[in-house]
What we know:
By secondary structure, this protein is an alpha+beta fold.
Amino acid sequence: MLPSVCRHAKAGDEPCRIGVDHHRDRKTGPAFAIAVLECRTHGQFFTLYPLGHYPYGRAAAAPVAPDGEPLYSHADGQPPSLAWETTLFAPVFALAEGPKPGPADPGAWWATEPPDRLALPAAVLGLQVAERLGDAIAEQLGIARLELHQADRDYRAARGPAAHARVLLAVLSRLPPDRCLLDRLVGSGALAGCWGSVERWDRGRHEARRRLFPGRGMPDG
């Protein structure tokens, strides 16, 4: 299902003529090749990512399927919970649990310096960013500004990877698990400069919907 309008279209232009130029395999991110599209009207190429993913991402931004439906984990004896382990927030949950007993696994989250693993999740949630960006991200995420400011102070004061991860978990817990979750996280990441501008193309509810999440200096996808 291709978009009918490209990002470069302006009022008065001829209709966009969009087609698939080729498919690009990925070592990370979606488990299938993604389409690189060409708008022959404007002579522009762009990548069509499935819902949940963002430009050049190694993991999804939100636990949703390619059709936008929420993804849940079903652990034995536990109620279903959002599958955050499939997203860029997976290190947050792993670090919050602390290191496992026994020999260290060199491929585990604890084998890498925690700031390297938590920098992206923290920025997407509006922590350790400029104050003016924090206010905009709080509004984008639907979290009270004072609550996000307090979380930012707690994060800066935290000591150790588990403590940092628990602050991030507390912020995640404030996000309503509804169909707007993807828009909240993709938009906040764009505001924080974690990725370039993203345009959402949604053809549900029998009508097309475009929404632009402008980025800050990162390459567009």
